[in-house]
Amino acid sequence: MIYRKHDRIASFAFAAVVNGRRCFWLASCWLAVFWWLVRLGCLIANQRIVLAGFCLFWMGLLGANAVAQTGERENYLRQDVEKILVRDIDIDPCSQCHKSEFQVWKKTPHATGFNELHKKDAAQRIVKKMGFSLVKRESLCLKCHYTPNQKAGKLIAVAGVSCESCHGEAKEWEPLHSDFGIRGSAAFGEKKAQESAEHRRLRLDATKKAGMLRPGGIYDVVANCFECHTVPHEKLVNVGGHSTGTTNFHLPEKIGKIRHNFLQSFLFADGKENAKIPPPRKRLLFITGRALDLEFSLRGAAEATIAGEYFENMTNRIGDAVYELQAIIDRQSIPEIAAMIRTYKAVNVSLNNKAALLKAADAIQASAKQLLKKHDGKTFASIDSLMNGLPDKVSRQQKARLEIAHSSSSRNTSVSSVGGQKEKGNPYPLKRKLRPETIFATIGPQGCNCHESQVDWLKENFHNTSLAPFNALDEKVLRIATNYGVSIDNLTRGSTICMDCHSTVITGKEFREVRIAVSCESCHGPGKDYKKPHQDKDRGYEISAELGMKQLEDAEVRAANCAECHYITDQRLLASGHPSGEGFDFVDGNRRVRHWEGPELSASALKSAFAKVRNSRGKIPSVNPVNLYSPGKAQEITRIRKARARKLNAIRRKISPWPSHASTIKLSEFPEIAPDASVEEILLILKQRLEEIYEKSNRRK
Q1: What sign does the CA torsion over 236, 240, 246, 248 have?
Q2: Segment 224-243, tens digit of pLDDT
Q3: Nearest residue to 424 via CA among 640, 624, 635
């Protein structure tokens, strides 16, 4: 019996080492030797053998721990820590020469994150879920959020995202990059000016081979950005609740905020002028960023093994990237981008399809490099409006075809574009927007990634299906649109009146097809300006109210907001057959959309507020119905329907634009298992636990 007890203790120790430290073979060997020495010592009553066994045991634990740390460090590092120069950011060797660059860097989030990131609530939640003890020591956070190095044998963050994070570990290339082949005491500028063309070529080649990512190499530098702005870590997303990276990564905008190009100024002036990005290079950055977003999202999807938040978000990123690439070639034919889209269409974005997805990503990488090799960006001026977030420049003919009216002036007739036939139109005034204009900008649902439970709620709410009838070309939708004067082939374009209430139009993309249904910003107001201030616990809401955030705690503000879409007084829309909202129950509507904590407004307060808003809007007017829609035009509608379906399936696919979060359910406390519990008793406890999980999961759905 005594040996069985010792066997049980040893097995627990063995399991702890193996499972906790992931070093199966080393632990197995050491513990096997240890245990047999102990048993042999007990059998022959030799204390020295027993002592030797215990010594080997602790040596095994230390060895296993060392191997485990080495294995874990491989997961925690993106770069070779042995080649990183910086050990203390205050004496960073790069800052000794690049003083102006260093001053710019110190003000960027890359630098300030060192002192701020680990304090944020979101970071602390992720750390807790992932089981990290310290953010800046031996954790996955070191991989992208910090510059790591070793101190006293421990892996530790020594800076935020620093010079070597973006330009490569500097130990091998630092002595080479400023060696111009000129000896003597001449100044830096003089030495560089005297460098021969051949020496410069050899120097650049040598620094590249030594690991330097030079700003001139667009693909290498940008790909380095996406290594962190895409997060290909399934557990970190599904369990930790981390995002899959930066969505809609607008490269020229991001680089513009951190740009620190003082070289020319240093050579010919005082070294204090930060050069701007020339337009041709900005265009190449924009296109390359979209291509790399697709490439790295495919690489991320290749790591997906289970259906969940990680895979869903990666497919969303893929869809967004393809959508953006399609918008580029809609403006200018670029063969390399067309090749990328063909590559995407040919691959099946599915779980456990790693080889095919990585092959597609490699093909897109090759196309991106070919594009950068063949083009300098000077001939890509047609994408400037897209890149700068401005509405497309359209001709009068295009405006007529899209049927966009920029005023609400009355028209006695309009042209219905179905079948291309002119016919008598709707006699009531034509409007471009139903809701009041705003000076604030929208950012899209990915911007609301802190409100996890609210986002999960909206995914299941009827507001999130407001675009479905338009994408399906529902006959009721077609009838109203035709009667109003909106062409069917441009039904979901953001500049049409329909999308004012049935979608969220992203600022700067008004003339493009909409992908997002009614979302947070539809009710709470465009969030680009108030997103950051509203997180201030002291004056956040007060400040945000001045930056476009609607104070929905006020019954009248809430009533006015809902009435914009649920109480229709527009004559042309009513004549087209659109429901008026006369029977809209505001109190019941509030009950159905409740997704916040805290007290709710009383039914009497809600009724009073909505009645006041209705009175201010006036009664629903009487109109003469218009009927311009004829089922006899089914052939033309069928053609448009099929073309639209092909576009949706081939380019956008049916994916959600919403950020996903790890869904959680609250379970009862796990019961303690007695040491002498039988196998049957343990299995019964596990069975009851699984039944509880199953029941609560279904209830949540």
Answers
A1: positive
A2: 899 999 999 999 998 888 88
A3: 624
